[in-house]
Amino acid sequence: MSNPSAIPPAPRPIETGFRSLDAGWRQWIAENLLRHCTPDSMLATMTQAGLDPAECEPAIEAMAHDPAFLAARKLQQLQSKLVSVVANQQKLLELDPLYGHVEKRSRVPLGEFLEKYVIGSRPVVLTDVARDWPALRRWSPQDLRERFGHLDVEIQSERSADPNYEVNKLDHQRRTRLADFVDRVLAGGETNDYYLTANNEMLSRPGFAPLLDDIGTLPDFCDPSQLARRASFWFGPAGTVTPLHHDTLMLCHTQIVGRKRWRFISPLQTPLLYNHFEVYSPVNLDQPDLDRHPLFSQATVLDVVVEPGETVFLPLGWWHQVSALDVSLSFSFSNIAVPNHYTFDNPRITNW
Question: What are the angstrom distances between the C-alpha of 189 and each of 87, 173, 226, 237?
């Protein structure tokens, strides 16, 4: 006779063979509804991923009425308004038939430079900034080796194996003697695997002070007293690429040796560039993936090759991708004598 007080064993769970519709998938539902994906397309993707369509379909329907999701919809409306505002401002700028052309100019009066390029936020190439700089006559890879080869520098290395090498730049930091790096650059040919970038901050070290002595007259819009702490040095082989990103201040970048190709996109077109993390865009201007980044097809890209002795003025917030066409030595400086400290509320979304 059975014991009526005995606790019956728990039933064994039914093995459905389907994946669990967990919190991550429910967030995925919300995100894709906010992207205006259709319920049918979402259901197809979830079913293909191994979820139970009988569970997914009501979950998609329920999300559309969830109070938290409805609050997100309101915030999305506010964001959409801002996106439309900047898109319309961009359309006005592009009414200028010369909008897509990056000017090369010399002897620009200070007032015009401030009005047209700083306040007017337009990139320009200045051809006469370095006209009296000793650097233009002296700097070369061999000169670096002779004068500073015994000093250590911090480079980025092993970049080619990492598609996010710029985001992960701290992981690619390596120390080496400058003489060894010069030899590596000269012998290695065209590559993006290693580069001495501004993050090295070598110009703040006393041993490299003579490089600053090779910088001559600065433009009228710069504060010479701030040069030593607002300058950076770049050196690398042909083939280096600084991926699409924007800086958080204005700067000038003077090409001393070799050529660089600069491509610019207006900050008003940020919504087209999938800027989900800090100041970076995943769009590769050399090989844009329009399946993953379809909005990029609407962006207007400005393109210019900067020759030795020429200086790019980078206005605030402009997106840019820079490629070295030759072995390259460059000098950048941000000691602009106008307010040049700005705050950006950058996203930090790593799973989108």
Answer: 42, 21, 36, 7
| Strands 104-105 and 124-126, sheet pairing | parallel
Q: Any alpha helices (H) in the chain, and if so which ranges?
A: 23-34, 39-48, 53-63, 67-93, 110-113, 134-138, 141-148, 178-188, 209-213
pLDDT digits (tens, 9 = 90+) for 102-139: 999 999 999 999 999 999 999 999 999 999 999 999 99
Three-state DSSP at 239 gives coil
Task: Convert the pLDDT of each residue in 287-344 to its tens digit.
Answer: 999 999 999 999 999 999 999 999 999 999 999 999 999 999 999 999 999 999 999 9
Q: What share of the chain is helix, strand, coil (3-state, %, to 5)?
A: 35, 20, 45
Q: How far, in Å, CA of 310 to CA of 168, rounded?
A: 30
Please choose, from the candidates 302, 304, 296, the residue with its C-alpha nearest in 3D space to the C-alpha of residue 269.
296
Q: Residue 314: count other Cβ atoms within 10 Å of its Cβ.
A: 22
Please, are residues 342 and 121 in contact by the beta-carbon 8 Å criterion?
no
> What angle in degrees, to the nearest 10, is found between the helix axes of 23-34 and 53-63?
50
Answer whether 0.70 is exceeded by the pTM.
yes
Domain boundaries, the chain: 18-95, 101-333
DSSP for 100-143?
T---EESS--HHHHIIIIIITT--EEESSTTTT-HHHHH--HHH
Q: Is the backbone of residue 50 left (phi > 0), alpha (psi -120 to 50) or beta?
A: left
Tokens, residue 276: 């989900």
- B/e letters for 101-135, b = 16+ CB within 10 Å, e = fewer, are ebeeeeebeeeebbebbbeebbbbbbbebbeebeb
Does the domain at 101-333 match CATH 2.60.120.650? Answer given as yes
